Amino acid sequence: MTPSSPSISRSQALTVIIGASVMLTMSMGMRQSFGLFVTPVTQGIGVSVGDFTLALALQNIIWGVTQPLTGAVADKFGVRRITLLGTILYAAGLAVTMVAQSTFALILGMGVLIGLAMSCVSLSLALAASAKVVSPAKRSMTLGLVSSLGSIGSFLCAPMAQGLIVAHGWQIALAGFLCLCVVMIPGAYFAGAGDGKVKRPLPGAMDRDPGLSLKAAINEALHHKGYITMAIAFFVCGLQLVFITTHLPAYLALCGQSPELSATALATIGGFNAIGCYVLGWMGGKLPKQYLLGTVYILRSLFIVAYFMSAPTPTSTVIFAAAMGMLWLGTAPLVSGLIGHIFGLRYMATLSGIAFFSHQAGSFVGAWGGGLIFDAMGNYDRAWQIGVAIGLSAGIAQMFMQTQPTHRMAAAAA
């Protein structure tokens, strides 16, 4: 390694990984707990379930639309500026939601501002920053580790939010989330510790092509059949996950279960998600990632059938949450790993962001579509049936995706 092409040190790599994990813990933990606010907020300010889920749906679609843009900016100028901006936007969104008295204010705070924030402080940038500071041999496990540590947030945030809602009301619960934004600041700062420090690939990587333009990288991805298949399957991933986090609390209330069970379920998802992310990340370094992804989508669908076919009980709900938690965000390190394998790391944040747009389009449908079906039919039967049908289809398609690296990557390896 020449002085003009410095690499990142081990301590700097650890700083990036820890910072990204803390940032994810806070941002994803709060985001996955928003379903707990459906009932208290709709009753408190007099809006419908459909109005609240529209705000969450817009949050997800704005997150998806802006993710490729924030990824491109991060690829060009570094992660730190984007992640710190996202933390500020997150706090602003929570503050606006706290004082909301109308659907418009709810959409502005919970939808627009937090949607913009999530594109800056969520998985895509955290995993892209982490992937660039480790060797290819350790990449899949590292991405799984970051996703795993970032998954602890639901385990912490959901019980905290439910306790504050019951004791002091939903506004105080959002004030508690504002305090977590303060904790997110150093994580967002240190996630960018690798900015500008990796000038050439780590030994054996051969996957950062400084001569490749952003336009050429996007064109390369859009003509890769495997990437297109993976992005479409990612739509189903977003639909299933956001449907559960948004509507499971309302479904349990409809079935006469206590609000505490909702918080317990979300916390269980977060706890087991930490295990699942690490396990899937580790397995992604040993087994074909496309087979693992397809298996995840199929197993999720089967667990949804098993749970929603009968009335929920505390025991069945916790078992369902644990099973879904094992299959939750473990898809992220697998998708990021496939993108790195096929296209390299030069524009990993951008290409992950484009694929993530599909994920968030599914999240939009899962959040708002579930609310519309509930408002129209008074139950969630049709919603989960649709989710299962497309989940099984996506799982099968994912298993047969094309995974060959691009000609550019193959030539570099040769």
Summarize the structure in words.
It is a single chain. The chain is an all-alpha fold and 414 residues long. It contains 18 helices and no strands. The protein has one domain: MFS general substrate transporter like domains (Growth Hormone, Chain: A). It is 79% helix and 0% strand. The protein is globular and about 60 Å long.
List keywords for this structure.
18 helices, disordered N terminus, Growth Hormone, Chain: A, 414 residues, mainly alpha
Write the layout of secondary structure elements.
Elements: H1 10-31, H2 38-45, H3 49-77, H4 80-98, H5 103-121, H6 123-131, H7 136-150, H8 152-168, H9 170-190, H10 214-222, H11 225-254, H12 259-284, H13 289-308, H14 314-326, H15 331-343, H16 348-377, H17 381-399, H18 407-413
Helix pairs in contact: 1-6, 1-7, 1-8, 1-9, 2-3, 3-5, 3-16, 4-5, 4-9, 6-7, 6-15, 6-16, 7-12, 7-15, 8-9, 8-12, 11-12, 11-13, 11-16, 11-17, 12-14, 12-15, 13-14, 13-15, 13-17, 16-17
